Amino acid sequence: MNGQEVYKHAVRNMVSVCESVMASQKVTVDDIAWFVPHQANMRIIDTIGRKLNFPSEKVAINVDRFGNTSSATVPTCLDEYVEAGRVKKGDLVLMTTFGGGVTWAGALVRW
Question: Are 34 and 10 in contact (CB under 8 A)?
């Protein structure tokens, strides 16, 4: 696989699915309490956050401590933030992921 092309594909599609989810629910970045992206690496997280205009303080991160845990990155990171009391009842949480088979997804959840 060509790492640079996979990076571009991942960023482009995770940004696109997040924009689509937000548009379909008529919400903006300002309405979202937490953005929980796939924790592949900080370069991807930073690029997606910047392209979506998320302030860094609203981006959930744990890749710095756990690395890329593959399909468990989003639920592990979300659980860590819930357990720490950072995600609260009623918060809007936007999640996106990218993985095996060069697939991607996004979801918006009212916690």
Answer: no
Q: What is the DSSP string of 20-31?
A: HHHHHTT--GGG
100, amino acid identity: G
Domains of the chain by residue range: 3-110
Q: How far is CA 34 from CA 5, 9, 87, 95, in A?
A: 28, 23, 7, 8
User: What DSSP designation does 56 have?
Assistant: G
Class of domain 3-110: alpha beta
Tens of pLDDT, residue by residue, the chain (111 residues)? 678 888 898 999 999 999 999 999 999 999 999 999 999 899 999 999 999 999 999 999 999 998 888 888 999 999 999 999 999 999 999 999 998 778 899 999 999
Three-class secondary structure of residue 110 per DSSP: strand
